[in-house]
């Protein structure tokens, strides 16, 4: 009698998909697709499907009911995955309000949440091959983070998996996203400075091409280009990119820029808060006072460790509203509906770190 592999000595429990994959000579993902009915519509060779079914019959494979429920089209579970170095668990973290908005809207829509901690200390790193495959446990997933593993996210989208990124992500074709209007908000902050009389304004930003950074720079340049008064006579608009703000933005650097005539510094908000933290520390170390000696503005909100300092002029990102908008967009994708969430407006924050340049409005140093 032929040996029945499903009752081979030493085996415990039912055959698994990994064993079907080994016998068929394919990946476990392919086995899952074939046995799950290929709901994603991925092109598979008929010979591949036949080998998977033959291996499953030979091993006596029977799908785990719990796994089948998880793989169903509707689990009423939405995933949340952060690409930050540590998953935001403290209420002071800038991502916390996003999660508040996500939770409230998910509850209103009748969904539970699954938090994936792939970027947390000790967890599977998001950049490792296949690290994002785990999000398929949920019906769809929300992603947060400045830097994402594009290949993995692109593969999820190509497979038809419902995914929404919180923050503009136009460079990944087919990925749905919600975002704040950083261009208009940044322009409003810079116009505030030019209305005060500043004509030499410098932007400090991180040395990368993250969409949030490019949007802020676009708003910065747009406002300067439309400023009234002799802006060009005082020198061109300047943008400083730095890969290491703490090392590059020093007291000596600030003094040198002020000596060249700069009267206002603007920094971008990022996941790390590095640009603003370095600028804030360098101005203090240089013995300068804002706004008496120099004006400071922040395109966003300060990091948690500087929340108790003087409130900077800038804008506030409506994080909870963005989180809720992302859930609405994701649930629309799950329902097969066409939906577009408009850019969410940011609120201008007057703060107390800006004033007229030394010598009076319009003074050119």
UniProtKB/TrEMBL annotation:
Keywords (A to Z) from UniProt: DNA-binding, Repressor, Transcription, Transcription regulation
SMART domains for the chain: HTH_LACI
Coiled coil: none
InterPro entries: HTH_LacI, LacI/GalR-like_sensor, Lambda_DNA-bd_dom_sf, Peripla_BP_I
PROSITE patterns registered for this protein in UniProt: HTH_LACI_2
Span of domain HTH lacI-type: 15-72
Gene3D superfamilies from the UniProt entry: 3.40.50.2300, lambda repressor-like DNA-binding domains
Pfam families reported in the protein's UniProt record: LacI, Peripla_BP_3
PANTHER family noted in UniProt: HTH-TYPE TRANSCRIPTIONAL REPRESSOR PURR-RELATED, LACI-RELATED TRANSCRIPTIONAL REPRESSOR
Name of the featured protein: LacI family DNA-binding transcriptional regulator
Record organism: Streptomyces zhihengii
């Amino acid at each position: 009698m032929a040996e029945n592999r499903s009752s081979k000595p030493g085996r415990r429990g039912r055959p698994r998909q990994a064993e079907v994959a080994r016998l068929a000579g394919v990946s476990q993902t392919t086995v899952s697709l074939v046995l799950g009915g290929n709901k994603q519509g991925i092109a598979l060779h008929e010979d591949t499907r036949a080998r998977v079914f033959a291996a499953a019959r030979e091993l006596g494979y029977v799908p785990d009911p719990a796994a089948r429920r998880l793989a169903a089209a509707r689990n009423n579970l939405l995933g949340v995955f952060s690409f930050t170095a540590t998953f935001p668990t403290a209420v002071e973290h800038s991502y916390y309000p996003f999660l508040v908005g996500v939770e409230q809207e998910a509850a209103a829509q009748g969904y539970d949440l699954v938090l994936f901690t792939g970027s947390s200390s000790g967890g599977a790193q998001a950049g490792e091959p296949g690290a994002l495959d785990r999000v398929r446990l949920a019906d769809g997933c929300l992603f947060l983070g400045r830097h994402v593993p594009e290949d993995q996210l692109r593969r999820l989208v190509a497979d038809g998996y419902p995914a929404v990124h919180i923050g503009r992500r136009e460079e990944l074709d087919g990925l749905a996203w919600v975002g704040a209007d950083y261009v208009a908000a940044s322009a409003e902050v810079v116009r505030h400075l030019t209305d005060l009389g500043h004509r030499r304004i410098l932007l400090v930003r991180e040395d990368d091409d993250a969409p949030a950074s490019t949007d802020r720079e676009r708003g910065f340049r747009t406002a300067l280009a439309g400023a009234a008064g002799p802006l060009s006579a005082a020198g061109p608009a300047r943008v400083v990119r730095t890969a290491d703000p703490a090392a590059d933005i020093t007291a000596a650097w600030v003094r040198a820029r002020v000596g060249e005539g700069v009267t206002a510094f603007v920094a971008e908000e990022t996941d790390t808060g590095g640009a603003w933290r370095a600028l804030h520390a360098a101005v203090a170390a240089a013995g300068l006072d804002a706004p008496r000696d120099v004006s400071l503005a922040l395109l966003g909100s300060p990091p948690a460790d500087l929340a108790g300092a003087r409130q900077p002029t800038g804008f506030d990102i409506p994080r909870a509203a963005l989180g809720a908008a992302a859930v609405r967009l994701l649930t629309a994708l799950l329902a097969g509906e066409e939906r577009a969430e408009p850019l969410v407006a940011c609120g201008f924050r007057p703060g107390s770190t800006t004033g007229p340049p030394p010598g009076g409005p319009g003074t050119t140093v």
